[in-house]
């Protein structure tokens, strides 16, 4: 079993409709346009995988992907640009805290932020909801900055993270374009999803 084996399972608007809360689950989140779909597609080695989450009707829903019966990835809709009716937005706003409070199989939260604009208010609010879970902050689009700019933005981000109780090791510079940070993040995902303690599969 490998990250590239991920397949779309279902889209559901409510926690109560999610697949059974067993095994291991990792969740992806971020502001709209942060680069979440690009990151998911790169990390799971499939172009267009996360596109499904942007289809109408699936934008205010838990978009669930599966590696097998016991390992799942949930793609949450990008927050920030709510182009949905208030009633839908309010209902969704109630589901998210329930998900993070109740989901026993949740092993890790991957929060994507544009490296140039990290830790905005909506990100910080989101992080208060997820506080009791392991989190990695993916600072995306790093290729848009020079190495020295990256270092400066990372050091500022580390300070913002510290205020929220997030350790410096939980921040990763990432680029879906260049692949920067991919190996570290893939390793963490394999760990969270329990793929690293499996014996390697024989080559075909
Ligand atoms: P989402 O709304 O968070 O899913 O963001 P997308 O993955 O759709 O990306 C939003 C825009 O940013 C698109 O135009 C992407 O091509 C671009 N983008 C995403 N990741 C990167 C990256 O690592 N580097 C660069 N240069 N552009 C990126």
Poorly predicted ranges (pLDDT <50, ≥5 residues)?
none
Strand order of the largest sheet: 1-3-4-2-5-6-7
Can you give the helix content as a percent range?
Answer: 25-40%
Structural class: alpha/beta
Biggest sheet features: 7 strands, mixed
Query: How many β-strand stretches?
Result: 7
Tell me, what's the shape? globular
Bound molecules: guanosine-5'-diphosphate
- What is the tally of helical segments? 5
Oligomer: single chain
What share of residues are in beta strands? 15-25%
First-to-last CA distance: 13 Å
Q: Mean of residue pLDDT?
A: 91
Query: What does the radius of gyration come to?
Result: 16 Å
Following the backbone from N to C, one meets helices and strands in this order, namely: EEHEEHEHEHEH
Description:
With 204 residues, this protein is an alpha/beta fold. Helices cover 30% and strands 21% of the residues. The protein is built from 5 helices and 7 strands; from the N terminus they run ββαββαβαβαβα. Strands 1-3-4-2-5-6-7 form a 7-stranded mixed β-sheet, with helices on both faces. Helix 3 (121-129) links the parallel strand 5 (106-114) and strand 6. The longest helix is centred in the middle third of the chain and has 17 residues, at 86-102. The protein is globular. The mean pLDDT is 91. The structure holds guanosine-5'-diphosphate (GDP). Guanosine-5'-diphosphate binds at residues 30, 32-38, 78, 140-141, 143-144, 175-177.
Fold topology:
Layout: E1 7-12, E2 24-30, H1 36-43, E3 62-68, E4 71-75, H2 86-102, E5 106-114, H3 121-129, E6 135-140, H4 147-163, E7 171-173, H5 182-192
Parallel strand pairs: 2-4, 2-5, 5-6, 6-7
Antiparallel strand pairs: 1-3, 3-4
The structure holds guanosine-5'-diphosphate.
Guanosine-5'-diphosphate binds at residues 30, 32-38, 78, 140-141, 143-144, 175-177.
């Amino acid at each position: 079993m490998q990250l590239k084996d991920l397949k779309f399972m279902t889209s559901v608007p409510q926690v109560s409709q999610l697949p059974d809360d067993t095994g291991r689950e990792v969740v992806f989140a971020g502001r709209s346009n942060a680069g979440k779909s690009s990151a998911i597609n790169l990390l799971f080695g499939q172009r267009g995988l996360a596109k499904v989450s942007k289809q109408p009707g699936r934008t205010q829903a838990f978009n669930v992907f599966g590696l097998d019966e016991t390992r799942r990835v949930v793609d949450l809709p990008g927050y920030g640009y709510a182009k949905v009716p208030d009633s839908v937005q309010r209902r969704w706003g109630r589901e998210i805290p329930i998900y993070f409070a109740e989901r026993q199989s949740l092993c890790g939260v991957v929060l994507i932020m544009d490296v140039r604009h990290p830790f905005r208010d909506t990100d910080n609010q989101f992080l208060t909801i997820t506080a009791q879970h392991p989190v990695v902050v993916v600072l995306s689009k790093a290729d848009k900055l020079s190495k020295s700019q990256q270092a400066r933005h990372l050091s500022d981000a580390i300070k913002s993270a510290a205020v929220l109780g997030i350790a410096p090791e939980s921040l990763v510079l990432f680029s879906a374009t260049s692949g920067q940070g991919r190996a570290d993040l893939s390793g963490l995902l394999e760990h969270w999803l329990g793929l690293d303690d499996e014996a390697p599969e024989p080559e075909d």
